[in-house]
Amino acid sequence: MLQIQDLSVAYGHRPIIRNLSAGPLLPGRVVSLLGPNGSGKSTLLKAMAGLLKVARGQVLLDGQDLTKLSFERRAQRVVYLPQSLPAAVHLRVFESVMVAARASDLDPHAQDASPQRILEVLGRLGIEHLAMHYLDQLSGGQKQLVGLAQALIRTPRLLLLDEPLSALDLNYQCHVMDLLAQETREHGLTTLIVLHDLNIALQRSDEALLIREGALVGHGRPDQVVTAESLAAVYQVDARVETCSRGLSHVLIDGLCAPAS
Ligand SMILES: Nc1ncnc2c1ncn2[C@@H]1O[C@H](COP(=O)(O)OP(=O)(O)OP(=O)(O)O)[C@@H](O)[C@H]1O
């Protein structure tokens, strides 16, 4: 179970995340993290992953404060996939997933980095045919899928994914969200995913967190969080959330809200 308590994060003297509390987020659930550009989503994920100094507050995972753990112990529990992947090195896809599996390895038996397991993870993502390709010769979307393979091979307790669908086509977006839901449920992970596509958040996440200017303004079922009112308040768009013939919620954008006079 994940609980964020009174978290504050700053860059220098500039506060970004302000006394943010959220949770509990239960294992086995996919939670979308929503909010406008610059609202602090990546900053929140980086702080939870231990990559930024936390000015105040706690991130409790099963009662343990992640902000106080050593790098190695945190790396065993938390996997963070950044928005932009590091410049691709001249490694084959297969090797890069193997390196990722061993990255957090205090206990050599903790991660199964056998060739079969690596091929299985690549296969689940539909990219086993890329196993022997070089990372620096892949397309943007293919690199993003390899990043996901590097994350999933590690079976953490907490999976933090920053816009993991941004370079993927429609088919892969659906496929990856289905796979993440399956992995999350099967392994009892807590999965937090930054998304800009509100329809994907509505239809394929179990819960949503909505932030604005570093503060939490909504948490609950996606259809309770993504509403015409919240979209007007947070994104300044004039929108409707309607239910289609299959019973799924869709956001329809009519335009920008009229500026306040
Ligand atoms: N390394 C940094 N140093 C100083 N300020 C930063 C740094 N990284 C981000 N910021 C600022 O922090 C604020 C929040 O940025 P962040 O990347 O967390 O937003 P975001 O919600 O993820 O945005 P986006 O949806 O555009 O990716 C922004 O105003 C940004 O300019």
From TrEMBL:
Origin organism lineage: Bacteria, Pseudomonadati, Pseudomonadota, Betaproteobacteria, Burkholderiales
Topology versus the membrane: Peripheral membrane protein
Localization (cell): Cell membrane
Family to which the UniProt record says this protein belongs: Belongs to the ABC transporter superfamily.
Protein's UniProt name: ABC transporter ATP-binding protein
Main location: membrane
GO biological process: iron ion transport
Residue span(s) of domain ABC transporter: 2-238
Alphabetized GO MF terms: ATP binding; ATP hydrolysis activity
A Pfam family it matches: ABC_tran
UniProt KW tRNA-binding keyword: no
GO (cellular component) term, any one: plasma membrane
